[in-house]
């Protein structure tokens, strides 16, 4: 018992460990290649230069009504960019009974006079300047980090203003900078709210109105380097501020794809216990993490958690039962227990190919039964989801204008075949969308097409599967 307590105490203190134990120690402000400071990422430090200050996503990507009164999606970043959606307006009016003639104009730009004044501890500010860590008290920077993307938060941004927002934004570039900031916060009795990608939908980024102390928004975006990659063991140590799209570009493949992966950060995934679309093969974030560093304001201690168990045989039980269970507290605290600074994740080679598929079912019960069979046979692709009829109709309304009369004729022919020849009712149709490279997938394998017959499933093609996957990233722009 004493021996176990010593082991646990050593982890909590961040004390010395025997060599070869696989412990993750915080990296200095230089990577192995000697580079210092942030890497060049997709999202700039001044995020409002690229992203909307009062909505989701890129400034140049949005749903608008064109001069003909039709819905159009702007920009060139997505497959739907620049395309007209001729039936979407009609679907909105019919489904929600909404009149698009009634409009409320939201504020187009931020009025700095509406922003609450900054409450800054001057002694803290002087100490912060001495560290040479970048910071800002600009209204735009503060407002951008005062919220996540809950509907009520977006509404407040467009119709009013938050009564309390961060007083100062700081940009650490490495673990050591985080240590300095947390120590100063403890010294001067300040509040810290870690800010990763800002895609939170749990209101965790909102500031309490009654808080009188200085609130510091600790933006991790400049901590975005790949510190090292171990190709033999397929692991990589990455700073927590890197966003999903940059992570997938720079390492082999992590396989973690939450709907917000374009903008959300690795540290945010850990702090929210995120789940991804491809969890069937790659797992959720807790399955992908080997270890991570988080720096806490509790006695300013460092916590190192090793999620693997490479120790000698007699130490495995202690590791799994005590340390791993204790580490689970640090998945999903949303910044309340510390700032995640570095994460060691499992990586995989990029798959040889990526294939999409879709299957149409006459009703929800048939779709559920088919997915149960997929689960029973353990033949699911990387991503598979059952789309109910409301989502099916919604996806159909987002279909772009066809390029030719022949294409329109083919679409009509397909609809006739499904409804008249096969007896499907449009208001009851369900769709299964799949993505992956599993040859045994019930969606893609010719040998398993007979299984679809048992559930009256009709293969709807790869293009519809890919469209369904793409719409995952588009629908947030409707907010």
From TrEMBL:
Pfam family, one: FAD_binding_4
One annotated Gene Ontology cellular component of this protein: peroxisome
Chain positions covered by the region annotation Disordered: 1-44
Record site: Important for enzyme activity: 385
Residues that coordinate or bind FAD: 194-200, 272-275, 334-340
Transmembrane segments: none
Catalysed reaction equations from the record: a long chain fatty alcohol + a 1-acylglycerone 3-phosphate = a 1-O-alkylglycerone 3-phosphate + a long-chain fatty acid + H(+)
Cofactors required: FAD
Location relative to the cell: Peroxisome
Domain of life: Eukaryota
GO terms for biological process, alphabetical: ether lipid biosynthetic process
Pathway: Lipid metabolism; Glycerolipid metabolism; ether lipid biosynthesis
EC number: 2.5.1.26
Enzyme class (EC, first level): transferase
Binding site for substrate: 479
PROSITE patterns: FAD_PCMH
Span of the signal peptide: none
A molecular function GO annotation: FAD binding
Quaternary structure, from the entry: Homodimer.
Biological role stated in the UniProt entry: Catalyzes the exchange of an acyl for a long-chain alkyl group and the formation of the ether bond in the biosynthesis of ether phospholipids.
Family indicated by similarity: Belongs to the FAD-binding oxidoreductase/transferase type 4 family.
Protein name per UniProt: Alkylglycerone-phosphate synthase
Originating species: Neopipo cinnamomea
